[in-house]
Amino acid sequence: MTGDVEALAATIRAAATGPARFVFAIAGPPGSGKSTLAEALVAAIERREPGSAVLVPMDGFHLDNAVLAARGLLARKGAPETFDVAGYHAALGRIRAGEEVAVPVFDRTLDLARAGAVVVGPGHRIVVTEGNYLLLDRPPWDRLADQFDRTLYVSVPEAELRARLVRRWLDHGLAAGVAESRAEANDLVNARLVAHLRRPADGEWVAIDAQA
Questions:
Q1: In the chain, at which residue ranges do the beta strands (DSSP E only) sit?
Q2: In angstroms, rounded to a whole number, what is the distance separating the alpha carbons of residues 154 and 206?
Q3: Taking CA atoms, which of 78, 79, 146, 155 is between 20 and 30 Å from 31?
Q4: CA-based nearest residue to 164, from 56, 18, 29, 60
């Protein structure tokens, strides 16, 4: 599967026919384009069926920097152990149960999660969620499998990922050497984990231009 957001949106709308909410999960390494794809997908669904779709990013469940610093994990922010997996799993469970659920959203500018930033309401029959570790096949992340109706993996060659991740740090104002070190020491470590320890997805998206 490559590049046709409208076709993917139509497929999801056709599959989400029952009374229960339909949860579509997009997984992929950092820099793969999954956030951009998820936003475009929700927008495409909304054009056909306004008020029916909402985006719930996994990144909202980042542990706060103060917690990470206390645990000696601040330099590894973005690694699997730096997220509230249980909180994310619980939120998905409530979403699938049809409840109104307020979820946090990560603010990249502030570098923190904003509580209750998105509300999944009664009219949202399609929920798109995205994150690095949604298909990670190791505890506690493997518990997420029963919360997804369909999954998609976003695939990007590692050389392209590296270029994107370095560029991301350069855009944050870091010097070239520091940007490359950040990408190699943390981001690409996480990207390889995502690629090599994942469960099979229902489909694969070959990302070319987008970043996330």
A1: 22-27, 53-57, 101-107, 112-120, 126-131, 150-155, 203-206
A2: 6
A3: 146
A4: 29
d(CA 65, CA 53): 31
Domain-wise residue ranges, the chain: 5-156+198-206
| Digitized pLDDT (tens) for each residue of the chain, 212 residues in all | 446 899 999 999 999 988 889 999 999 999 898 999 999 999 999 999 999 999 999 999 999 999 999 999 998 999 999 999 999 999 999 999 999 999 999 998 888 999 999 999 999 999 999 999 999 999 999 999 999 999 999 998 888 888 888 888 888 888 888 878 888 888 889 999 999 999 999 999 886 554 44
Residue with tokens 């046709």, as numbered in its chain:
4
Domain 5-156+198-206: homologous superfamily in CATH:
P-loop containing nucleotide triphosphate hydrolases (3.40.50.300)
